[in-house]
Design brief:
By secondary structure, the chain is α/β, with parallel strands linked by helices. About 35% of the residues lie in helices and about 15% in strands. The protein folds into three domains: about 270 residues, P-loop containing nucleotide triphosphate hydrolases (Rossmann fold, 3-Layer(aba) Sandwich); about 70 residues, no CATH class; about 40 residues.
């Protein structure tokens, strides 16, 4: 280990596997992975989300007090709220804060979207629609007051920039132009009918990021393309905010003023930077991975399918936590992208048990095989025990259900007898 357990800048995640459990604690150098990014790679059921929970516990502990954002597509990290009431995470006047933004609380203001975001939300546009959307987007930006515009103003821009637009402004958009009508309809469907995209409301950065705060963005029940646009927008805004703050372009009191480094952890990272596929979140993620360290924006990627993750993205993560991997394609991607893991350790990956992890890179002195420590908070991503649930239903739920059914049967019988009906002998 580069760090000792419990000292500032350390993250105690487990102990050396070759010794009795707990005998040789392993602590990562937090500066190492927040400066050069982190990847947690594992097959389903190997314990990657559990390890991520351990890392987050360490980052929010009194000796780190990090500013963290978690992109949670499955709603697995809400149990981290327990930290706020546990003595292990308190020291003096410090107590961590965990904020959860559920799907119905998420807001992305429409004027924060780029033209690339809009095109991604409107797949299969014709070339003419692409061209017209680009013109309308530029028109809306030029016409916006204080840089803000609404959906209606964007639709107005579509009508104003339509080729062959009627000179009579009172006539509205050109009904004879199918491109304009179709583009307006699609923008209405994608933005006007969405609970996420809003004319005025937005997730403000000073609410999302504070030292000692973990903010969880829950994306379950949200369309995949909307998820990618949300992630792209947030990453783009925080990167720009950190650059502007570092260059003195933002004053204190500005909602985008971020005078401290931030760490963003992305679950299911292959959805936001897929290999051999186009996702609107890929470019900004690559930019942050290559340039973000200069401005204090660091990324943690979690993926169960490294073979589906862009190889350039994976290779930019200088600390790797690799758990059991059995798929040959995934093993090859790791071999191609992770230079610090030797062939001998790679051959061990299929035989690792749940909770065992190979850690290599900037946060440790040498690659090490360890057993992940027990979490202090509960794990929110546990698999259901189907046989146990079936038995519990017979032991607990079924008797109660039969009792309710019997009571309903007796009540109906009494009612029928009161009506003078004879339904049985």
């Amino acid at each position: 280990s580069k760090r000792r357990r419990g000292e500032r800048g350390s993250a105690h995640i487990g102990s050396l596997l070759s010794r009795p459990e707990g005998a040789v604690p392993i602590a990562l150098d937090v500066r190492g992975f927040t400066g050069t990014h982190l990847a947690v790679i594992a097959s389903t059921g190997s314990g990657k989300s559990y390890l991520a929970g351990v890392l987050l516990e360490e980052l929010l502990s009194p000796h780190n007090r990090a500013a963290v954002l978690v992109v949670d597509p499955h709603g697995e990290y809400s149990t981290l709220q327990e930290m706020m009431n546990l003595a292990e995470f308190s020291a003096g006047n410090y107590k961590p804060r965990v904020r959860i933004f559920r799907p119905d609380q998420l807001r992305v203001r429409i004027d924060t979207l780029t033209v690339a975001d809009l095109r991604y939300l409107l797949p299969n546009l014709s070339e003419k629609m692409h061209y017209q959307l680009g013109r309308a987007f530029s028109f809306a930006q030029r016409s916006a007051k204080n840089g803000h515009y609404t959906l209606e103003q964007l639709l107005y821009a579509v009508r104003q920039t339509a080729e062959g637009k009627k000179s009579d402004e009172a006539a509205g958009f050109d009904e004879d132009d199918p491109t304009t009508g179709a583009l307006i309809w699609r923008l209405h469907a994608a933005l006007g009918n969405s609970r996420i995209f809003h004319d005025f409301e937005n997730l403000e950065l000073d609410e999302l990021f504070k030292p000692g705060q973990c903010t969880i963005i829950q994306l379950n029940e949200i369309d995949r393309r909307e998820q990618q646009v949300i992630v792209a927008t947030l990453l783009r805004r925080v990167y720009q905010a950190r650059m502007d703050t570092a260059k003195g372009k933002l004053d204190r009191g500005d909602p985008s003023h971020l005078p401290y480094p931030v760490f963003c952890l992305l679950e299911e990272a292959h959805n936001y930077a897929p290999a051999n596929a186009d996702a609107v979140s890929s470019d900004v993620l690559k930019t942050i991975l290559s340039e973000g360290r200069k401005f204090g924006v660091s990324i943690g990627l979690i993926s169960q399918r490294p073979g589906k993750l862009d190889s350039d993205v994976l290779s930019q993560c200088m600390t790797q936590c690799i758990m059991r991997i059995t798929n040959p394609i995934d093993q090859n991607r790791i071999a191609e992208s992770v230079e610090s893991v030797g062939r001998d350790l790679l051959r061990e990956l299929p035989s690792l048990s749940k909770g065992q992890v190979v850690v290599s890179g900037a946060s440790v002195n040498t690659p090490v095989l360890l057993k992940v420590r027990k979490r202090i908070t509960q794990h929110g991503g546990q698999d259901l025990d189907a046989p146990a649930e079936w038995m519990r239903w017979f032991e607990e739920d079924r008797p109660a259900q039969e009792e309710r059914t019997t009571a309903l049967y007796v009540e109906k019988k009494i009612n029928y007898e009161d009506d003078g009906d004879v339904l049985w002998a």
